[in-house]
């Protein structure tokens, strides 16, 4: 069937359907149960069902049944077709945002956790060690705590990471006038993915799940393995689409 961009634009022309799309994109490539979508967005099941049906008809999301549950995920193919129709057919190739395109400047990457006391600080320290000056690395928490977890700081110090640059911060630290422009925003854990706000400037986004109950050593090994392909990229020549694929490929834990 020929792609009809009008269906896509119409499906997104409602604030609640747009919220659903944003939520699924935050979690991509994970599939989300309909009940979880409704709970996070405060939507009644009957209302949400209609929104999901219209987004599916437009080819922007996909559905999968597992036992008695219906799970939904964003369709990157559908979104790409809509982008191509808008930027290509409508705009003649003009208007692609500069954010995320190859360039020589340092990339700003933000890790977002729930409390910015554990995993997000470990990820910040690891990427800073692995990538050197290729990235300027930041972290923050949706529910910031006063101090990093002492056991995390001790563990990182014993691994020869510079802990002097690590401190717990609320998201507002990196928002507003004078804040650095973020090129990549990675949420760590499902709660962070669900409640992190949309970031200005259209950065790359990724939602990385965390396996429950990991020791600090296992968590470090897991995050290190997922960060290595990103740290190895030459960002001066890597197309934006390739950067996003690397980020999405690290969505699930490799140690669990």
Automatic annotation (TrEMBL):
<dbReference type="InterPro" id="IPR036388">
    <property type="entry name" value="WH-like_DNA-bd_sf"/>
</dbReference>
<dbReference type="Pfam" id="PF01451">
    <property type="entry name" value="LMWPc"/>
</dbReference>
<keyword id="KW-0804">Transcription</keyword>
<feature type="domain" description="HTH arsR-type">
    <location>
        <begin position="1"/>
        <end position="94"/>
    </location>
</feature>
<dbReference type="InterPro" id="IPR001845">
    <property type="entry name" value="HTH_ArsR_DNA-bd_dom"/>
</dbReference>
<dbReference type="InterPro" id="IPR051011">
    <property type="entry name" value="Metal_resp_trans_reg"/>
</dbReference>
<dbReference type="InterPro" id="IPR023485">
    <property type="entry name" value="Ptyr_pPase"/>
</dbReference>
<keyword id="KW-0238">DNA-binding</keyword>
<keyword id="KW-0805">Transcription regulation</keyword>
<dbReference type="InterPro" id="IPR036196">
    <property type="entry name" value="Ptyr_pPase_sf"/>
</dbReference>
<protein>
    <submittedName>
        <fullName>Helix-turn-helix domain-containing protein</fullName>
    </submittedName>
</protein>
<dbReference type="InterPro" id="IPR036390">
    <property type="entry name" value="WH_DNA-bd_sf"/>
</dbReference>
<dbReference type="Pfam" id="PF01022">
    <property type="entry name" value="HTH_5"/>
</dbReference>
<dbReference type="InterPro" id="IPR011991">
    <property type="entry name" value="ArsR-like_HTH"/>
</dbReference>
């Amino acid at each position: 069937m020929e792609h009809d961009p009008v269906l896509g634009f119409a499906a997104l022309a409602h604030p609640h359907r747009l919220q659903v799309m944003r939520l699924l994109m935050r979690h991509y490539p994970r599939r989300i149960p309909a009940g979880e979508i409704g709970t996070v967005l405060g939507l009644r099941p009957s209302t949400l069902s209609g929104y999901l049906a219209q987004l599916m008809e437009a080819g922007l999301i996909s559905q999968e049944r597992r036992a008695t549950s219906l799970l939904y995920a964003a369709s990157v193919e559908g979104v790409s077709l809509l982008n191509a129709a808008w930027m290509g057919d409508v705009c003649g190739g003009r208007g692609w945002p500069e954010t995320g395109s190859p360039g020589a400047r340092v990339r700003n990457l933000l890790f977002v956790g729930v409390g910015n006391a554990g995993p997000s600080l470990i990820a910040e320290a690891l990427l800073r060690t692995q990538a050197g000056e290729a990235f300027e690395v930041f972290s923050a928490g949706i529910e910031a705590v006063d101090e990093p977890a002492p056991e995390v700081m001790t563990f990182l110090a014993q691994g020869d990471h510079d802990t002097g640059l690590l401190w717990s911060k609320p998201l507002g630290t990196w928002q507003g006038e004078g804040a650095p422009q973020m090129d990549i925003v990675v949420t760590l854990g499902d709660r962070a993915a669900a409640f992190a706000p949309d970031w200005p400037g259209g950065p790359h986004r990724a939602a990385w799940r965390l396996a429950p109950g990991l020791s600090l050593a296992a968590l470090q090994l897991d995050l290190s393995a997922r960060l290595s392909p990103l740290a190895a990229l030459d960002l001066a020549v890597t197309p934006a689409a390739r950067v996003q694929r690397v980020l999405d490929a690290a969505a699930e834990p490799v140690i669990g």
